[in-house]
Specification:
80% helix; mainly alpha
Length: 272
């Protein structure tokens, strides 16, 4: 019951963290767009139109603010920064779980043989940990191993329960990346929405191009291609960090299995 309540509190805290992070990122990114990017982009567009009206021949510079100015790019940046904040938190959680392996959870001198009768005594330091720390993978794997050893008096079943705990934790970590995977899919999709919108606007201004004014069509096509370009670029960055987080999580699971083998399994002994 205590573990269930702890998991529920953790889920609520995680949801609140993500909602607050989304709100903060939205405010910050929108503020940057309103105060910096869009005013500069509008100024540059107005200057280009003024030069075109007087018939001046000049080379149009490819400016970063022009590429980023549209709503689709803003949405992509919001989603990317939001997912990076979520991944940073999960990376911190993995680091916290890994840090517990640096502590002396079990003090078993070399050459000692641990019998099933000793399991309860050895589990006391783990039971003395805080509720949150008891739910971390290394502590949970150790506690489950000692409980199984005391109940079953079989070393093979201890190894099995450690593997089961690690596998279930790995599945949980993988499921928690569902939102990040969704964002990784959503960013290119938003870019394609901008492409469709830009092409639609360009087709709607085709009559202007026929009359010799191609500025409207060019601007609409710029929306189309810039949104896709930015979305794909941000998606590449996001997927890189997501794979780094997955690698960190997989190493935690593998290192926990090695930790249990080094600190506990090799000391177990069953007297026939």
């Amino acid at each position: 019951m205590k573990i269930l309540s702890s998991n529920q509190n953790t889920a609520k805290s995680e949801l609140m963290y993500q909602l607050v992070a989304l709100l903060v990122v939205t405010i910050v990114v929108h503020a940057v767009y309103v105060t910096i990017i869009r005013p500069q982009a509008e100024s540059m567009v107005a200057e280009q139109l003024a030069r075109q009206e007087v018939g001046e021949v000049y080379e149009v510079p490819r400016s970063l603010v022009i590429i980023l100015k549209d709503f689709e790019q803003e949405a992509c940046f919001i989603l990317m920064f939001w997912s990076l904040i979520i991944m940073y938190r999960k990376s911190q959680e993995v680091g916290n779980e890994r840090s517990i392996m640096d502590r002396a959870l079990l003090e078993i001198p070399d050459g000692t043989r641990v019998l099933p009768e000793d399991a309860r005594q050895l589990a006391r330091p783990i039971e003395a940990l805080a509720d949150e720390e008891q739910d971390w993978l290394p502590a949970r794997a150790m506690a489950s191993a000692l409980q199984r050893f005391a109940a079953m008096r079989d070393i093979g079943s201890v190894s099995t329960v450690i593997r089961e705990v690690c596998d279930s934790h790995s599945e949980r970590l993988d499921s928690e990346l569902a939102m990040i995977r969704y964002i990784g899919w959503a960013i290119p999709s938003i870019g394609f929405i901008g492409t469709v919108r830009g092409i639609g606007e360009a087709l709607g201004r085709a009559h202007e191009a026929v009359q010799g004014n191609i500025s409207g069509v060019a601007a609409s096509l710029g929306v189309a291609f810039n949104s896709t370009f930015v979305a794909l670029l941000l998606s590449i960055v996001l997927m890189f960090f997501m794979h780094q987080l997955q690698l960190q999580q997989e190493r935690l699971v593998l290192d926990t299995e090695k930790y249990c083998d080094k600190k506990l399994l090799r000391f177990l002994k069953v007297v026939a």
